Amino acid sequence: MDLFDLSGRTAVITGGNGGLGLAMARGLAKAGANVAIWARNPEKNAAAIEELRDLGQGDVLALTCDVAEDSEIAAAMERTLGTFGRVDVCFANAGISGAGTAIPDITAEGWDRTMAVNTRGAALVYKHVTRHMIARAKDGDAGGKLIATSSGQSIMGVNRSSDYAASKAALNGLTRAAAFELARHAITANALLFGYYETDITAKADPRFAEWMAKRIPLRRPGDHAGLEGLAVFFASPHSDYITGQCLPVDGGLCIS
């Protein structure tokens, strides 16, 4: 018996066409889940479909969607349900790095854009997904999983990252509130506070940042993308049903260094 078989289950993953999101999507596909990617870049979406369809027994759907736009989320949800009939798991993974400004240089536009994607985007995605999950629960089919991609910066300081840190700290608050409010429908909510992984976002950073991180992380290395596959499957599976409201660092010990 495969303890982590996700056959027949459908997982939505925003921003799932690259980086951490695609790594998690690989694990979900290998476990047999249907995977719906909601992301902005059509070319990367097409490449993700081609890769994921060869990995498991489930199907893959990729939809162009900007999570800062409520109407696009609604349309993506409608198409996902039209294709798969249900959503069991939602990874609110889409995010941006932030404006990269020092606090004296904050602009309203930069701050609002970071919040719109990283915090409001996740909340709006959860709005549409949980409406479906709650309706299922009322019909006797209770249960659902909400997993947010947060960051270690939500609990520790980094220069020129106040908007990003604040957006992820707010996401942690959303996670705890969702866990409490939705427990009656057997819907769990958790956040993964990722540390330093090599992604398109970190590639844009000053090279000295990577060197500094390598020295500060107790395990002395960045996170490995392959390890995210099993992590995603665990949180999507029934084996995590009794874990909710948690904000779990996934950072090689960075937050304790």
Description:
With 257 residues, the protein is an alpha/beta fold. The chain has a single domain (10-256), classed as Rossmann fold. Helices cover 45% and strands 16% of the residues. It has helices at residues 19-30, 42-52, 70-84, 108-138, 162-182, 200-203, 207-216, 226-236; strands at residues 10-14, 34-39, 60-64, 89-92, 144-151, 187-194, 247-250. The mean pLDDT is 95.
In brief:
The protein is α/β, with parallel strands linked by helices and 257 residues long. The protein has helices at residues 19-30, 42-52, 70-84, 108-138, 162-182, 200-203, 207-216, 226-236, and strands at 10-14, 34-39, 60-64, 89-92, 144-151, 187-194, 247-250. The protein has one domain: NAD(P)-binding Rossmann-like Domain (Rossmann fold, 3-Layer(aba) Sandwich), CATH 3.40.50.
